[in-house]
Design a protein that fits this description.
Shape: globular
Distance between the termini: 21 Å
Strand content: 25-35%
Oligomer: single chain
Structural class: alpha+beta
Number of helices: 13
Length: about 450
């Protein structure tokens, strides 16, 4: 992608409305634009990051055996009336009517709809276990949206819903998502700690929030400091192993960890003083097991091996991609801008032409750009005629992991400079060596 042809509206000044680092940097880097209170457009740079975050989420959901579908954003109020949640949910739900005066709603979540899909299609225990997920926009009319896309009214959510014959089987499905979430956040460059949590309006009997520690977190959290050093389940994790997944769950719930709503001061004080960690936290995922809370009122049942009908046991599992992007920035930035983990960076490499119009610089940058693009790398080529300081500031602000800098003097010697955005380390090498480093 040539920067001269790309849409990336950089802001030189810090926006006054941005209260936290991630909101400020997302606006300055031209990743998002506010359309109304708590509602944002994702501009091209932000959309690239969001797509990469979603790809990792999707990969780990598929690995754990979940199956993707797509459900509509607008839902019939009848389903919610059937479950009993229509009146109970509160003002966060946007209630509307269509031209036939039928009550509708902009879905804040999809338990009712997915239960309706299940009950119309699945009749036997032989079709279980089943976990269906989608990645879709939601709307909750937050009383105080703030911090950009960290707490917005319209947001994207990956929500998955599991169906099992028994509680024991449902807990195994819960453990699958528990392990998948640990892997997902680790691949995104985040250390997320699962904490006992309140079930909220979704309801349920077992619930964990996945929290990353950050000074700008919305609530206080309490945990044992050893969580910071726990090993994440690796790619060899067997998601069919009941014992293996239970061992992962037991390990990651063996020490004290709770959100403020579930905090037990006495239990926390029982942790050795040097091991107590009290901090602010950002919720990036939430999982629930709620048994037959929805299947009973909505008649979602299957025939069991005993020939009798049984209400299925359900769970739901949410991750907010549009919240994850600013969470990653909160965890990874410096005074100059964003520092993206490699897997979610909008581009792998930015090639900086220090003297656009100089034949040698142009030819060198074109050579590098073509070679890396052919090798499958996402490359941003700064071919603008901006000053050197502006080019460097832009590259640092948007956080691309590697900068390849081609200036007249270095190019005359057959060399370029390669900068690591995270460490700031710079290395001069031949043009061929620079290409081979990223093509090999």
């Amino acid at each position: 992608m040539r920067l001269s042809r790309y849409f990336m509206p950089i802001l030189k000044e810090n926006p006054k409305e941005a209260e936290i680092v991630s909101h400020r940097l997302m606006l300055r880097a031209g990743m998002i634009r506010q359309q109304s209170q708590g509602i944002y457009s994702w501009l091209p740079l932000g959309k690239r990051v969001l797509d990469k975050v979603n790809a990792i989420i999707r990969d780990e959901q598929n690995r754990a055996g979940a199956i993707e579908l797509s459900m509509p954003t607008l839902q019939s109020a009848e389903l919610w009336q059937e479950s009993g949640r229509y009146d109970a949910y509160g003002k966060e739900m946007l209630r509307i009517k269509d031209r036939q005066d039928r009550p509708m709603l902009y879905g804040p979540t999809n338990e009712e709809m997915v239960t309706d899909i299940f009950r119309s299609s699945v009749k036997s225990y032989k079709d279980l276990p089943l976990n269906l997920y989608h990645i879709q926009l939601k709307f909750r009319d937050e009383i105080r949206p703030r911090f950009g896309t960290m707490r917005s009214r319209e947001f994207m959510m990956k929500d998955a819903y599991s169906f099992d014959l028994t509680r024991e089987a449902a807990e195994h499905s819960y453990n699958k998502m528990f392990a998948a979430y640990l892997r997902t956040f680790d691949r995104l460059g985040l250390r997320a700690i699962p904490m006992r949590a309140d079930t909220g309006p979704i309801g349920g009997k077992l619930s964990h929030e996945f929290i990353i520690l950050a000074d700008t977190g919305e609530s206080e959290v309490f945990c044992h400091k050893d969580f910071v050093g726990f090993d994440t389940p690796d790619e060899r994790t067997d998601f069919d192993s009941v014992e293996g997944l239970q061992a992962i769950f037991d390990k990651w719930t063996s020490l004290y960890a709770a959100t403020s709503e579930m905090h037990d001061e006495a239990a926390f004080n029982a942790v050795p003083e040097g091991d107590r960690l009290s901090a602010r936290g950002i919720e990036v995922g939430h999982i629930f097991y709620f048994g037959t809370k929805y299947s009973e009122p909505m008649g979602a049942k299957v025939q069991g091996p005993d020939g009798k009908e049984h209400f299925v046991h359900m769970g739901s599992y949410g991750i907010g991609p549009t919240r994850l992007v600013p969470a990653i920035i909160e965890a990874s930035h410096d005074d100059n801008g964003i520092i993206w983990p490699a897997l979610v960076a909008p581009f792998d490499v930015v090639v900086i032409n220090m003297k656009a119009g100089d034949q040698a610089c142009d030819d060198t940058c074109e050579l590098i750009y073509a070679a890396l693009t052919k090798a499958g790398k996402d490359v941003l080529y700064d071919d603008t005629d901006d000053r050197a300081g502006t080019k460097f500031a832009t590259a640092d602000l948007i956080g691309v992991p590697v900068q390849i800098i081609a200036g007249p003097r270095a190019v005359a010697n057959g060399e370029v400079e390669v900068k690591d955005r995270k460490t700031g380390a710079r290395e001069t090498m031949t043009i061929e060596a620079a290409i081979n480093r990223f093509v090999a």
